[in-house]
C-alpha cells in the first residue's frame, strides 16, 4: 500500500531492493520458492556465521522480520552513537566532512521512520546543513516538526516570517500570564505582582522556551528583540519591556557570552536586575548605573532606545519609584531639598528615560528627555510637606490637650498637586506611589485627603491595572474602615465608580476588591454597590463572571427569612443545644 511505499522511500536510489522488486521477481519467475530463497540470500544480513543460525531461529518460530528488526534497532543505536562521536573527534573540517558525506548518503531515506532519527542526528551535529537540504525540510511539515532545534535555528535565521509564527503564540501566552496575575482573585499585600524575584520569573515557561529557541544565535536574538519593539510600539503594553530584560538575563544566567557581549545593555541590565531583586537602588549601584548612562558615546545614542525599554519594565519602574519615596522620607529627616540630592536626581533621570521609552522608539529621536525643573523645585517639596503634615499631626495627637481642642487633620490638597498629577507623567507616577505608600502604612487620613486627586491623572494612570492591583492589595490593610459610610463613599463613589462605566478593567478591579472584602462593607452600602456594579450588555465575560461570584457570596450571607422574623417578646428563646458537629 502507499503507507508501505513511504516507509521504504528512497531505498531504490541507493540500490537496495524493496517490496516492489520482490513482487517483480515473483511475477516473472517459474519457481517461486527458489526465487524467495535467492532474494533472502541476496538481501539478508551478510554475515557467514548467521547462515547456519537462521534455520535454528526458524525452528523456534521467531519470524525473520522480528530478527531483522532487532538487528536493525541495535545497528541504529550504534550508528547514532557513532554520529555523535564523529561530531566530537578529529579536526573540525574533517569531522564535518564525514558528517556531510553521511548526510549525502542517508538523506534520501529521511522519510523512512526507522532511518529518520539517524538523518536528523547527522543534521543536528552539522553547524551548517546544506541549503538544499534545509529547503527540503522546510517544505515538508512532518520533517520540519521532527527536526532538532539546532536545525530549526538554521532555518529560522533566514526565514523571519516562519520564526515569527513560532514565537508569536509564546508572546501572546506571556502577556496573558501577566494579566492573569494582575487580575488574580487572591488579593494580598504580601503576594502581589512584584513579589516574584527576577530569578524566579526567568524560570517561566515562555522565557525558557525562547532562550532554548535562540541558543547562541545572535541573529535570532535580534529578531526576537525586533518583535518585542514592534509589539511594544503597536500596543504600548509594557510587559514586552519586562520580557526584553528577562530574556537577556536568562541568557546571562546561562553564560551565553556570544549574545551577552554584543548586547550593549547587558551590564546595565545586570546591575538594574540586582536593584530589582532588592527592590531598592543603593548608592553603589546608583553610581554604576549613572556611569552607563553618562558613558553613552556620540554616534551610539541609539542604545538609549534599548536602555529606555529596559527601564520601562514595570519591575524597574516599581523599584525606582519605591526608592524615590524612601529618599524623600530621608530628605525630610535630613532637612535637605530634593535638588541637593544627586541620588534622587539620578532616580528621576532613570524614571524619565523609562517613561519616555515609547516616544523615543516611536520618534527614533535618541536623546534623554528633558527633566522639568518644577518637578524638582515644586512637586517633590510638596510631597515632603505631606510627610511633615503627618508627623506634625501624630505629635499633636500625643500632646496633652488642655487649652486647645483636638487639631483636625488637614483635609484640603494644594491645587498644584492635582495639576501636577494631571499634566506631568513622572510627578503622576511618584504621586501614585506615595499614595500606595500611605495606604500600606494604614494612614487613612492621608489616603482620604489625596484620593480626590486620582480621579483625573496623566493618561489615566490611576486607573491602570498595575496601580489598581497594588492599591486593592494595600486597601486590605484598611479593611475595618469599609464599615464606615464616609470612607466607602469617598473610595467607591468618589473614585472607582467615576471610571467603571468607561473602563472595563476598573469594573473588574472593584469587583475583585469586593469579593475579598464584602463582609467588611456596611450592608446598606453593599446593596447600593451591587446595583451600581451590575454588568451591562457591553460588559465582557470577566466582569459578568466576577459579578456572578459576588452575587453568590452575598446570597450566602443573607439571613434566611425564618431568622429575620422577630421573636415575640413574651416567649423565652429556647436554650441552644449544641449539635454533635459543633462540639
TrEMBL record:
Q: Name one GO cellular component term.
A: NELF complex
Recorded source organism is Anhinga anhinga (Anhinga)
Superkingdom field? Eukaryota
Under the heading InterPro entries, the entry gives: COBRA1
Disordered: where is this region?
557-583
GO BP annotations of the record are:
negative regulation of transcription elongation by RNA polymerase II
A Pfam family that this protein carries is COBRA1
Q: What is this protein called?
A: NELFB factor
Amino acid at each position: 500500500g502507499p503507507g508501505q511505499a513511504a516507509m521504504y522511500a528512497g531505498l531504490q536510489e541507493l540500490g537496495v531492493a524493496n517490496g516492489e522488486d520482490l513482487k517483480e521477481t515473483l511475477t516473472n519467475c517459474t519457481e517461486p520458492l527458489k526465487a524467495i530463497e535467492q532474494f533472502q540470500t541476496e538481501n539478508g544480513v551478510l554475515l557467514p556465521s548467521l547462515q547456519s543460525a537462521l534455520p535454528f531461529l526458524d525452528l523456534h518460530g521467531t519470524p525473520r522480520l522480528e530478527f531483522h528488526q532487532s538487528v536493525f534497532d541495535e545497528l541504529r543505536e550504534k550508528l547514532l552513537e557513532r554520529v555523535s562521536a564523529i561530531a566530537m573527534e578529529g579536526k573540525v573540517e574533517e569531522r564535518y566532512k564525514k558528517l556531510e558525506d553521511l548526510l549525502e548518503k542517508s538523506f534520501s531515506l529521511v522519510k523512512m521512520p526507522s532511518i529518520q532519527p539517524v538523518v536528523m542526528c547527522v543534521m543536528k551535529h552539522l553547524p551548517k546543513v546544506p541549503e538544499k537540504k534545509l529547503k527540503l525540510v522546510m517544505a515538508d511539515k512532518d520533517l520540519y516538526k521532527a527536526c532538532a532545534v539546532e536545525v530549526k535555528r538554521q532555518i529560522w535565521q533566514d526565514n523571519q516570517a516562519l520564526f515569527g509564527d513560532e514565537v508569536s503564540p509564546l508572546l501572546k501566552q506571556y502577556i496573558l500570564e501577566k494579566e492573569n496575575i494582575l487580575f488574580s482573585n487572591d488579593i494580598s499585600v504580601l503576594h502581589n505582582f512584584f513579589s516574584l524575584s527576577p530569578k524566579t520569573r526567568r524560570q517561566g515557561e515562555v522565557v525558557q522556551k525562547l532562550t532554548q529557541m535562540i541558543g547562541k544565535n545572535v541573529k535570532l536574538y535580534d529578531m526576537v528583540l525586533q518583535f518585542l519593539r514592534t509589539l511594544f510600539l503597536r500596543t504600548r503594553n509594557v510587559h514586552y519591556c519586562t520580557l526584553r530584560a528577562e530574556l537577556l538575563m536568562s541568557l546571562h544566567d546561562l553564560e551565553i557570552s556570544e549574545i551577552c557581549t554584543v548586547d550593549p545593555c547587558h551590564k546595565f541590565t545586570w546591575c538594574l536586575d540586582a536593584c530589582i531583586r532588592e527592590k531598592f537602588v543603593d548608592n553603589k549601584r546608583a553610581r554604576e548605573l549613572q556611569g552607563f548612562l553618562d558613558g553613552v558615546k556620540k554616534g551610539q545614542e541609539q542604545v538609549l532606545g534599548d536602555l529606555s525599554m529596559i527601564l520601562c519594565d514595570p519591575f524597574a519602574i516599581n523599584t525606582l519609584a519605591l526608592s524615590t519615596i524612601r529618599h524623600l522620607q530621608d530628605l525630610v529627616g535630613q532637612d535637605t531639598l530634593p535638588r541637593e540630592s544627586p541620588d534622587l536626581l539620578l532616580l528621576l533621570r532613570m524614571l524619565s528615560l523609562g517613561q519616555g521609552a515609547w516616544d523615543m522608539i516611536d520618534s527614533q529621536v535618541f536623546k534623554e528627555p528633558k527633566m522639568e525643573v518644577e518637578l524638582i523645585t515644586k512637586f517633590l517639596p510638596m510631597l515632603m510637606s505631606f510627610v511633615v503634615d503627618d508627623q506634625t499631626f501624630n505629635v499633636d495627637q500625643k500632646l496633652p490637650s488642655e487649652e486647645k481642642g483636638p487639631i483636625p487633620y488637614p483635609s484640603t490638597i494644594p491645587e498644584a498637586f492635582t495639576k501636577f498629577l494631571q499634566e506631568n507623567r513622572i510627578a503622576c507616577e511618584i504621586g501614585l506611589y506615595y499614595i500606595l505608600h500611605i495606604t500600606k502604612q494604614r494612614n487613612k487620613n492621608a489616603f482620604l485627603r489625596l484620593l480626590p486627586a486620582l480621579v483625573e491623572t496623566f493618561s489615566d494612570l490611576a486607573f491602570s491595572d498595575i496601580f489598581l492591583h497594588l492599591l486593592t492589595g494595600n486597601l486590605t490593610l484598611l479593611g475595618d474602615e469599609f464599615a464606615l459610610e464616609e470612607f466607602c463613599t469617598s473610595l467607591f463613589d468618589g473614585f472607582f465608580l467615576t471610571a467603571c462605566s468607561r473602563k472595563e478593567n476598573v469594573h473588574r478591579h472593584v469587583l475583585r476588591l469586593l469579593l475579598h472584602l464584602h463582609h467588611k462593607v456596611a450592608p446598606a452600602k453593599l446593596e447600593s454597590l451591587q446595583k451600581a456594579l451590575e454588568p451591562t450588555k457591553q460588559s465582557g465575560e470577566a466582569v459578568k463572571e466576577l459579578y456572578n461570584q459576588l452575587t453568590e457570596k452575598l446570597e450566602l450571607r443573607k439571613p434566611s427569612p425564618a431568622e429575620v422574623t422577630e421573636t415575640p417578646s413574651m416567649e423565652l428563646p429556647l436554650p441552644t443545644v449544641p449539635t454533635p458537629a459543633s462540639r
